[in-house]
UniProtKB/TrEMBL annotation:
It is found in: Membrane. GO terms for cellular component: membrane. GO terms for molecular function: ATP binding; ATP hydrolysis activity; copper ion binding; P-type divalent copper transporter activity. It comes from the Bacteria. Keywords: Membrane, Translocase, Transmembrane, Transmembrane helix. This is Cation-translocating P-type ATPase. One of its GO terms (biological process) is copper ion homeostasis. Its main location: membrane. The chain holds residues 224 to 528 of 588 of the full protein.
């Protein structure tokens, strides 16, 4: 019966950490025709691995040269970003298992969608994307540009490190697609929703993830303000847009969306923070939860009507 269907749906969504925040969301969910999703931690697992580290030796004195991984690891200690967590994990593996072994960073600033900056042991350290380096006035040798292009064409995520204003190295990371993503996309497609991958990561990494799960449209290299602009453009074309993303990093795009499906920050207590007032929050943040939430809205309305 009706009650059983609703209960089953509610129980399933609760188990998956899906929260539908208010009744208006049900209607909004059935109207969307486009779903814009972020890559890292949504389509992919977000459990990134540091696969290679290339250090540019400058100044000649190798003993005096501060270790790239140690400085980058220290700077990323407080980062929630999958890239930061992968760098910290690799640094801890190399320099000791507890974070006490990494120096304490000072004046740390997270630049969402760009990177992180701060001071470590008297050195000014910057870790982030190419665009961030350029914005910070760091010059890149041509050979490095070629290497980045090569790694990115293979689907890797690349991050640059600058120490005291000079380019110092490249970190290469990999991520894997979540198995449930393909299934989730099938669900969304069946509901008549067109998927679009929108990421701050590079084109190569984005295309690789998109191809693995069957997403045809990719917008890569987009900083947070470009993510919002894309949502606005789609809306101006008359589309009803759902955004699936991180409540912190993708906050602006979520606020702009016709339906916001946000991955909340779950501090462990099972209560999911919702800093953007998302209509739907999902604790796990995978695509499957998001697709199930939309499906649940469809089913609920059909049942109630
Ligand atoms: P996505 O859209 O895939 O979630 P983000 O917008 O979170 O990507 O990040 C875009 C890019 O900004 C990353 O690919 C990386 O180059 C850079 N970046 C963001 N946060 C960090 C960080 N903590 N450390 C290093 N690089 C970062
Ligand atoms: Mg992100």
């Amino acid at each position: 019966g009706v009650a059983t269907a609703l209960l089953a749906g509610a129980r399933r969504s609760a188990q998956q950490g899906i929260r539908i925040r208010h009744p208006a969301v049900l209607t909004a969910a059935t109207r969307i025709d486009t779903v814009v999703m972020s890559k890292t931690g949504t389509v992919t697992t977000g459990h990134m691995q540091l696969t290679a580290l290339l250090s540019a030796r400058h100044g000649g004195d190798q003993d005096a040269e501060p270790s790239l991984l140690r400085l980058a690891g220290s700077l990323e200690t407080g980062s929630e970003h999958p890239i930061g967590r992968a760098i910290v994990a690799a640094a801890q593996e190399a320099f000791g298992s507890h974070s006490g072994r990494l120096p304490q960073p000072q004046n740390v600033r997270q630049h969402h969608g760009m990177g992180v900056s701060g001071d470590v042991e008297g050195h000014r350290v910057i870790v982030g994307r190419q665009r961030f380096m350029t914005a910070c006035g760091v010059d890149l040798p041509d050979a490095v540009r070629d290497l980045l292009t090569e790694a990115q064409n293979h689907g890797s995520t690349t991050v640059l490190v600058a120490i005291d204003g000079a380019f110092s190295g490249v970190l290469i990371l990999s991520d894997t697609v979540q198995e449930s993503s393909t299934e989730a996309l099938e669900v969304l497609t069946r509901l008549g929703v067109e998927p679009l991958l929108l990421t701050g990561d590079n084109e190569g990494a984005a295309r690789r993830a998109a191809a693995a799960v069957g997403i045809g449209t990719v917008v890569a290299d987009a900083p947070p303000q470009e993510k919002v602009a894309l949502v606005k453009t789609l809306q101006a074309q008359g589309r009803a847009v759902a955004v699936i993303g991180d409540c912190v990093e993708d906050a602006a795009a979520l606020v702009q969306a016709d339906l916001a499906i946000g991955r909340g920050v779950d501090p462990g207590g099972g209560t999911t923070a919702d800093p953007v007032g998302a209509g739907i929050t999902v604790a796990r943040g995978d695509l499957r939860s998001a697709a199930d939430a939309v499906l649940l809205c469809h089913r609920t309305l059909r049942t109630v009507r």
